[in-house]
Amino acid sequence: GTVIRLEDYRPSDYLIDTTDLAFTLEPEATTVRAKLSVRRRAGVAPDTPLVLDGDELTLAGLKVNGETPAENGYTASPDRLVIGDVPADETFTVEIETRLNPSANKQLMGLYRSNGTYCTQCEAEGFRRITYFLDRPDVLSVYTVRIEARTEDAPLLLSNGNRTESGRLENGWHYAVWHDPFPKPSYLFALVAGNLGVVRDTFTTMSGREVALEIYVEHGKEPRAAYAMDALKRSMKWDEETFGREYDLDIFMIVAVSDFNMGAMENKGLNIFNDKYVLADERTATDADYANIEAIIAHEYFHNWTGNRITCRDWFQLCLKEGLTVFRDHEFSADMRSRTVKRIAEVKLLKAHQFPEDAGPLAHPVRPRRYSEINNFYTATVYEKGSEVVRMIRTILGEDGFRKGLDLYFERHDGEAATIEQFIKAFEDATGADLAQFALWYDQPGTPNLTVSSHHDAGPKRFTMTIEQRLTPPIEGAPHAPMHIPVKFGLVSAGSGDMEWTAVSGAEVTGDVIHLREPKHTVVFEGINERPVASLLRGFSAPVTLFPEAEDADLAFLARNDPDEYGRWQALSTLVTRQMKQAAARSADERGEVFDEETCAIFMDIAADDSYEHAYRALCLTMPGENDIAREIGNDIDPDTIHAVHRAASRQLGRFGERIFARLFHGLEPAGSYSPDAASAGRRALRNIALSYLCHGSQDTALAAKAFAQADNMTDRAHALTLLVHLSPRTDETIDALKAFQDEFRNEPIVMDKWFTIQATAPGAETLETVKALTGQTGFSWDNPNRVRALIGAFSAGNPTGFNRPDGEGYQFLCQAIGRLDGANPQVAARLMTAMRSWKNLEPGRREMARKAMEGLSARPRLSRDVRDILDRTLA
Ligand code: DPP
Ligand code: ZN
Q: Mapping DSSP to helix (H, G, I), strand (E, B) and coil, where does residue 15 land?
């Protein structure tokens, strides 16, 4: 296939100043009439053909300046309309008619139907499935959209901007006209038409304008949109208070649909959401669902400034809007919840999703330089690492400098399609800082490694720390120059918290940040009386892998004494991971005791310490997952060994802490009615982790069965059911519980997704048969991305022992599923393929099986560009 390269970027020859669209909606034969006012860019030769993008389009009519062009004046194919015979004037109009079949569109890109509702998805290149266009983000146009439909089918007609007109037509049809005054790229276009319920509210902006807020959901589900509405209002307020960003239209709408490739989409004034990120009540949603809804509502809303008002020049700049907007939603959630708890959760996710991507065959820079399918670059690297890079800018410049830089960026580039260079430049110009070396973070793939060694000299009272950075390029030939890495730190003394120093040399140190810029720094602190323990990378100030020299004793010391709460968690997590990794290297009969006494004692002291927040204690008590241990081991992975260690570790802690866990479980019984707030969620999290340890310690799930029966909310219910299914899959209690859950929720697809996932992630080789059987269950559908992800995605990415069966059947199953899905929905199929991204780290037997399965898929004659791209890179 063709590779698109950053260095080949050039502006389009033509611009489209205004775009008038008229839709006549019919389920299988929708007509789209587009009237484009086209302008030739200054300096472009008058006879330059106008080349418009299409994708599976049929041209039904064409006029240029009101006239039908001669047959040899243009050529039309499904993916391109070339008008060779263009008028000599600088501006002219082009009218295009296309005909679509939204009901047959299973790719869920362009105009499609979800449960009868017409909706659109245009990012990245879906608009070209609606009409021929300059479908690229640097072509900004003012849209006016007229929608006509049968009133009975679609009483609701929505598009971007403000509604300027609506009314009745003949024969039971009606229409509405929407105008969006803000020029926007085509990927932000949206249309929704259907029969939906609505929740309304208002928000008064900081300058006193009243904005109408509307959330559209299936009829009957309106009460479940209350939390999303609340999160929206809090997001709007927070963006005004934190970044001075005010909403700009008179109306802001969100529509929830059940068939959606992604989480949600930030279309101007008309966000479209996967319904699982809108709908919640205590009966159907877990605390994690509520937290996701809050974060994603905020994320899409924040795009209004970072993405919509200032968009990307080209898709290589995707992190310009995504990294920055993820950073903004992280900060929002941190302010709404507990900052440390939120940061720990982010770091865990980053390490679980982005680190393996950056270490494997799918590694790419935060700003990639080439792609063959842009849909495959909506990745953890672009989003999550992209956010970490923005966070480092703030760490380097400080709060004030960061805000000044961002203000300048908004001021300079409002209404434009911008680049990473322009973003960086705004921070440099606002603060005088030099970010040239820092900018390498956007271009160099891979996770830098930091190794540290230190010594203390009592005589001269000197503490010396040697820090080396090394970047192992995951891609052959990728650049790996030394980076500017901000390391937040403290020197922790035995008695009195962080120590002060009288002088420091060997690296620039500002406040509590060491700035690494060289491959190796020897940092010397003067005036240090006693040997400190260095607490490094506080708050995870850079996305690097730290190899601390610290002995277990020093980590244990930090886990108890680091004045920084994040630092305590990080030390404990490092210690625990290290001991689990060591246990995996021992023979089977020598790994019953995974942790030493002191480590067990630290766990229990945290568990019992009521001065900590519940949520923080729950996070500290959560062991690294099996995939985390695998990542730490690095190569020749045997998932069965890791699973055995994980089980042994849970049993050991469960026994060791039985009294404390029993006290927590019984002492934290729900008091009063359910509330999704962070404090209540933390309380449930701690109680549920105590329940897990009690079950593991006693090897008995009776308590989980009781908890399942008594649960009055989905958080507790799903947790108890998971314990039953994962610890005692074949007991009557478990079978009854699964049945009860299914009976209650069989008509609630997004709740049934949990039922699928819980079963798909049950450890052990047999689960593959369960998963295969579940694909035949009523309620499962290959056409719905949420169902596919809940069952097949969860199995392949979240069930290390089941998926990595030694006989390779798990890999075969995944590759067959991808082959089956690919014809209908290549985007979702390609995403499933990423479960293979770490296959080269497996032990040789499984590695071979994985290769065979992928080669089998690769031999298929008709793979989509999406799957072909991921498969080729993964196998390379
Ligand atoms: N732009 C969407 C988001 O991340 C995804 N396509 O918000
Ligand atoms: Zn986004």
A: strand
